[in-house]
Amino acid sequence: MRHPSRLLLVVGAVLALLAAGCAAGPGDRERPAPGTGPTAGGPPSGTPRAPWRPAPGTAWQWQLSGRLDPAVDVPVYDIDGFDHPASAVADLHRRGRRVICYLSTGAWEDFRPDAARFPASVLGKGNGWEGERWLDIRRTDVLEPLMAARLDMCRAKGFDAVEPDNMDGYANDTGFPLTAGDQLRYNRLVARLAHARGMSVALKNDLDQIPELVGDFDFAVNEQCAQYDECDALRPFLDAGKAVLHVEYELPTREFCPSARRTGMSSMLKEYDLGVWRRPC
Protein backbone atom coordinates (compact mmCIF):
# COMPACT_ATOMS: atom_id res chain seq x y z
CA MET A 1 0.00 0.00 0.00
CA ARG A 2 1.28 3.40 -0.80
CA HIS A 3 -0.20 5.33 2.05
CA PRO A 4 -1.48 4.32 5.50
CA SER A 5 -4.28 1.79 5.55
CA ARG A 6 -6.51 4.22 7.34
CA LEU A 7 -6.87 6.10 4.06
CA LEU A 8 -7.78 2.96 2.20
CA LEU A 9 -11.00 2.57 4.12
CA VAL A 10 -11.45 4.89 0.72
CA VAL A 11 16.16 -8.46 -14.63
CA GLY A 12 21.60 -8.36 -14.60
CA ALA A 13 24.13 -9.58 -11.97
CA VAL A 14 26.89 -7.63 -13.70
CA LEU A 15 25.07 -4.46 -13.09
CA ALA A 16 24.96 -5.33 -9.39
CA LEU A 17 28.76 -5.15 -9.36
CA LEU A 18 28.62 -1.87 -11.24
CA ALA A 19 26.23 -0.52 -8.64
CA ALA A 20 28.45 -1.63 -5.77
CA GLY A 21 31.41 0.31 -7.18
CA CYS A 22 29.44 3.33 -8.33
CA ALA A 23 30.65 6.59 -6.81
CA ALA A 24 28.23 8.70 -4.86
CA GLY A 25 26.93 11.81 -6.53
CA PRO A 26 28.01 15.27 -5.40
CA GLY A 27 24.97 15.72 -3.18
CA ASP A 28 24.78 12.15 -1.93
CA ARG A 29 25.15 12.40 1.81
CA GLU A 30 25.78 8.87 2.92
CA ARG A 31 27.36 6.99 5.77
CA PRO A 32 28.55 3.39 6.03
CA ALA A 33 26.94 1.01 8.44
CA PRO A 34 28.47 1.20 11.90
CA GLY A 35 31.78 -0.68 12.08
CA THR A 36 32.14 -0.79 8.29
CA GLY A 37 33.66 1.40 5.65
CA PRO A 38 35.34 1.36 2.25
CA THR A 39 38.12 -1.17 1.81
CA ALA A 40 40.66 -1.25 -1.03
CA GLY A 41 39.26 -3.33 -3.86
CA GLY A 42 35.91 -3.75 -2.13
CA PRO A 43 34.72 -6.77 -0.15
CA PRO A 44 35.99 -10.24 -1.02
CA SER A 45 34.01 -12.17 -3.60
CA GLY A 46 30.86 -13.60 -2.04
CA THR A 47 30.91 -11.18 0.92
CA PRO A 48 27.98 -8.75 1.09
CA ARG A 49 29.03 -5.14 0.57
CA ALA A 50 28.52 -2.71 3.42
CA PRO A 51 25.04 -1.28 2.96
CA TRP A 52 24.68 2.32 1.88
CA ARG A 53 22.67 4.34 4.33
CA PRO A 54 21.03 7.71 3.65
CA ALA A 55 21.68 10.44 6.21
CA PRO A 56 18.98 12.67 7.70
CA GLY A 57 17.96 15.44 5.36
CA THR A 58 18.87 13.57 2.15
CA ALA A 59 16.65 14.74 -0.71
CA TRP A 60 14.79 12.04 -2.60
CA GLN A 61 12.33 11.21 -5.34
CA TRP A 62 9.64 8.57 -4.93
CA GLN A 63 8.12 7.48 -8.25
CA LEU A 64 5.96 4.37 -8.42
CA SER A 65 3.80 5.21 -11.45
CA GLY A 66 4.18 6.66 -14.93
CA ARG A 67 7.24 6.77 -17.19
CA LEU A 68 10.34 7.05 -15.03
CA ASP A 69 11.90 10.51 -15.12
CA PRO A 70 15.58 10.05 -14.17
CA ALA A 71 16.40 13.76 -14.33
CA VAL A 72 15.14 14.94 -10.93
CA ASP A 73 18.18 16.51 -9.26
CA VAL A 74 18.22 14.49 -6.05
CA PRO A 75 20.72 11.92 -4.71
CA VAL A 76 18.14 9.19 -3.97
CA TYR A 77 15.40 7.55 -6.06
CA ASP A 78 12.80 5.10 -4.76
CA ILE A 79 11.25 3.10 -7.65
CA ASP A 80 9.28 -0.12 -8.17
CA GLY A 81 11.57 -3.16 -8.16
CA PHE A 82 9.50 -5.23 -10.57
CA ASP A 83 8.61 -2.46 -13.02
CA HIS A 84 12.14 -1.30 -13.83
CA PRO A 85 15.00 -3.25 -15.47
CA ALA A 86 18.63 -3.30 -14.39
CA SER A 87 19.38 -0.77 -17.14
CA ALA A 88 17.16 1.83 -15.44
CA VAL A 89 18.98 1.34 -12.13
CA ALA A 90 22.35 1.57 -13.94
CA ASP A 91 21.25 4.80 -15.63
CA LEU A 92 20.33 6.35 -12.31
CA HIS A 93 23.70 5.26 -10.91
CA ARG A 94 25.47 6.95 -13.84
CA ARG A 95 23.60 10.09 -12.90
CA GLY A 96 24.96 9.83 -9.33
CA ARG A 97 21.80 8.51 -7.72
CA ARG A 98 21.37 5.82 -5.12
CA VAL A 99 18.33 3.66 -5.88
CA ILE A 100 15.81 2.05 -3.53
CA CYS A 101 13.81 -1.01 -4.59
CA TYR A 102 10.11 -0.77 -3.70
CA LEU A 103 8.55 -4.15 -2.91
CA SER A 104 5.44 -5.31 -1.16
CA THR A 105 6.49 -7.81 1.48
CA GLY A 106 3.36 -7.89 3.62
CA ALA A 107 0.71 -8.14 0.92
CA TRP A 108 0.12 -10.28 -2.18
CA GLU A 109 -0.40 -8.53 -5.52
CA ASP A 110 -2.13 -10.45 -8.29
CA PHE A 111 -0.32 -8.47 -11.02
CA ARG A 112 3.23 -9.51 -10.03
CA PRO A 113 5.05 -12.17 -12.10
CA ASP A 114 5.51 -14.40 -9.05
CA ALA A 115 1.90 -14.16 -7.87
CA ALA A 116 1.12 -17.82 -8.66
CA ARG A 117 3.87 -18.96 -6.28
CA PHE A 118 1.88 -17.79 -3.26
CA PRO A 119 -0.47 -20.52 -1.98
CA ALA A 120 -4.03 -19.57 -1.18
CA SER A 121 -3.47 -20.49 2.46
CA VAL A 122 -1.32 -17.37 3.04
CA LEU A 123 -3.70 -14.94 1.34
CA GLY A 124 -5.93 -12.91 3.62
CA LYS A 125 -8.37 -10.08 3.23
CA GLY A 126 -7.97 -7.26 0.74
CA ASN A 127 -5.87 -4.34 1.94
CA GLY A 128 -7.88 -1.68 0.14
CA TRP A 129 -5.93 -1.73 -3.15
CA GLU A 130 -7.34 -3.56 -6.17
CA GLY A 131 -5.72 -6.97 -6.62
CA GLU A 132 -3.95 -6.92 -3.25
CA ARG A 133 -4.46 -9.09 -0.17
CA TRP A 134 -2.72 -9.25 3.17
CA LEU A 135 -0.26 -12.09 3.77
CA ASP A 136 -0.15 -14.43 6.75
CA ILE A 137 3.26 -13.29 7.95
CA ARG A 138 3.34 -16.08 10.50
CA ARG A 139 3.99 -18.50 7.61
CA THR A 140 7.69 -17.78 7.19
CA ASP A 141 8.18 -21.34 5.91
CA VAL A 142 6.32 -20.19 2.79
CA LEU A 143 7.14 -16.50 2.68
CA GLU A 144 10.88 -16.48 3.45
CA PRO A 145 11.96 -18.14 0.16
CA LEU A 146 9.51 -16.00 -1.81
CA MET A 147 10.80 -12.78 -0.28
CA ALA A 148 14.41 -13.95 -0.60
CA ALA A 149 13.81 -14.42 -4.34
CA ARG A 150 12.38 -10.91 -4.60
CA LEU A 151 15.36 -9.45 -2.79
CA ASP A 152 17.68 -11.46 -5.05
CA MET A 153 15.98 -9.66 -7.94
CA CYS A 154 16.64 -6.28 -6.36
CA ARG A 155 20.30 -7.16 -5.80
CA ALA A 156 20.72 -8.51 -9.35
CA LYS A 157 19.30 -5.30 -10.78
CA GLY A 158 21.83 -3.29 -8.78
CA PHE A 159 19.58 -1.61 -6.22
CA ASP A 160 21.25 -0.09 -3.17
CA ALA A 161 18.38 -0.47 -0.73
CA VAL A 162 14.90 -1.88 -0.27
CA GLU A 163 11.61 -0.31 0.75
CA PRO A 164 9.43 -3.20 1.91
CA ASP A 165 5.80 -2.19 2.06
CA ASN A 166 2.81 -3.38 4.07
CA MET A 167 4.91 -3.99 7.16
CA ASP A 168 2.15 -3.37 9.68
CA GLY A 169 -0.44 -6.05 8.95
CA TYR A 170 -0.83 -6.85 12.64
CA ALA A 171 -2.52 -3.46 13.10
CA ASN A 172 -5.02 -4.11 10.28
CA ASP A 173 -7.92 -6.43 9.57
CA THR A 174 -5.94 -9.03 7.62
CA GLY A 175 -8.12 -12.08 8.20
CA PHE A 176 -5.40 -13.60 10.36
CA PRO A 177 -4.91 -13.29 14.13
CA LEU A 178 -1.56 -11.52 13.77
CA THR A 179 0.15 -10.19 16.87
CA ALA A 180 2.74 -7.48 17.44
CA GLY A 181 5.25 -10.26 18.08
CA ASP A 182 4.45 -11.85 14.73
CA GLN A 183 5.07 -8.51 13.04
CA LEU A 184 8.38 -7.92 14.83
CA ARG A 185 9.65 -11.36 13.83
CA TYR A 186 8.62 -10.91 10.19
CA ASN A 187 9.97 -7.39 9.85
CA ARG A 188 13.31 -8.46 11.32
CA LEU A 189 13.38 -11.39 8.89
CA VAL A 190 12.93 -9.03 5.93
CA ALA A 191 15.67 -6.77 7.29
CA ARG A 192 18.06 -9.72 7.68
CA LEU A 193 17.36 -10.90 4.14
CA ALA A 194 18.14 -7.45 2.74
CA HIS A 195 21.31 -7.04 4.80
CA ALA A 196 22.54 -10.51 3.79
CA ARG A 197 22.40 -9.25 0.19
CA GLY A 198 24.36 -6.09 0.93
CA MET A 199 21.38 -3.77 0.71
CA SER A 200 20.07 -1.38 3.32
CA VAL A 201 16.43 -1.56 4.28
CA ALA A 202 13.73 0.87 5.32
CA LEU A 203 11.05 0.48 7.93
CA LYS A 204 7.85 1.54 6.19
CA ASN A 205 5.36 3.24 8.49
CA ASP A 206 4.73 0.79 11.43
CA LEU A 207 5.21 3.67 13.83
CA ASP A 208 4.24 1.87 17.01
CA GLN A 209 7.09 -0.63 16.63
CA ILE A 210 9.86 1.87 15.88
CA PRO A 211 11.40 1.63 19.38
CA GLU A 212 11.85 -2.13 18.92
CA LEU A 213 12.90 -1.99 15.24
CA VAL A 214 15.08 1.11 14.83
CA GLY A 215 18.20 -0.98 15.43
CA ASP A 216 17.23 -3.46 12.72
CA PHE A 217 16.52 -0.94 9.96
CA ASP A 218 18.76 1.63 8.22
CA PHE A 219 16.21 4.37 7.55
CA ALA A 220 12.48 4.96 7.60
CA VAL A 221 9.89 5.72 4.95
CA ASN A 222 6.75 7.41 6.22
CA GLU A 223 3.51 8.71 4.82
CA GLN A 224 1.47 11.47 6.39
CA CYS A 225 2.95 11.63 9.87
CA ALA A 226 2.34 15.39 9.87
CA GLN A 227 -1.31 15.07 8.91
CA TYR A 228 -1.88 12.63 11.75
CA ASP A 229 0.45 14.33 14.25
CA GLU A 230 2.70 11.26 14.45
CA CYS A 231 6.11 12.60 13.38
CA ASP A 232 7.52 12.50 16.91
CA ALA A 233 7.32 8.71 16.70
CA LEU A 234 10.04 8.81 14.03
CA ARG A 235 12.50 10.63 16.29
CA PRO A 236 14.44 7.42 17.19
CA PHE A 237 15.59 7.13 13.58
CA LEU A 238 16.75 10.73 13.42
CA ASP A 239 18.43 10.46 16.82
CA ALA A 240 20.33 7.42 15.50
CA GLY A 241 21.54 9.40 12.47
CA LYS A 242 19.19 7.55 10.13
CA ALA A 243 17.11 9.27 7.46
CA VAL A 244 13.36 9.61 7.57
CA LEU A 245 12.07 9.80 3.99
CA HIS A 246 8.66 11.38 4.39
CA VAL A 247 5.76 12.43 2.19
CA GLU A 248 2.49 14.21 2.72
CA TYR A 249 -0.38 14.09 0.25
CA GLU A 250 -2.98 16.50 1.55
CA LEU A 251 -1.26 19.18 3.64
CA PRO A 252 0.25 22.28 2.04
CA THR A 253 4.02 22.44 2.44
CA ARG A 254 3.78 25.41 4.79
CA GLU A 255 2.15 23.15 7.35
CA PHE A 256 4.90 20.52 7.54
CA CYS A 257 8.09 21.84 5.91
CA PRO A 258 9.23 24.13 8.76
CA SER A 259 9.16 21.24 11.21
CA ALA A 260 10.74 18.87 8.68
CA ARG A 261 13.64 21.26 8.10
CA ARG A 262 14.08 21.72 11.83
CA THR A 263 14.16 18.02 12.64
CA GLY A 264 16.07 16.83 9.56
CA MET A 265 13.30 14.85 7.93
CA SER A 266 13.50 14.41 4.14
CA SER A 267 10.03 15.68 3.36
CA MET A 268 8.05 16.50 0.25
CA LEU A 269 4.51 16.82 -1.02
CA LYS A 270 3.41 14.15 -3.50
CA GLU A 271 0.21 13.11 -5.24
CA TYR A 272 -1.36 9.79 -4.27
CA ASP A 273 -0.37 8.09 -7.54
CA LEU A 274 3.31 8.75 -6.71
CA GLY A 275 4.11 9.90 -10.23
CA VAL A 276 6.86 12.35 -11.23
CA TRP A 277 5.39 15.44 -9.57
CA ARG A 278 6.93 16.49 -6.27
CA ARG A 279 7.17 19.61 -4.17
CA PRO A 280 10.10 19.25 -1.74
CA CYS A 281 10.61 21.19 1.43
From TrEMBL:
Keywords: Signal
Pfam families: Glyco_hydro_114
Gene3D superfamilies in alphabetical order: Aldolase class I
Segments forming domain Glycoside-hydrolase family GH114 TIM-barrel: 60-274
Spans annotated as Disordered: 25-56
Coiled coil location: none
Domain of life according to the entry: Bacteria
Endpoints of the signal sequence: 1-19
Protein name: Endo alpha-1,4 polygalactosaminidase
Organism: Streptomyces roseolilacinus
Lineage, opening ranks: Bacteria, Bacillati, Actinomycetota, Actinomycetes, Kitasatosporales
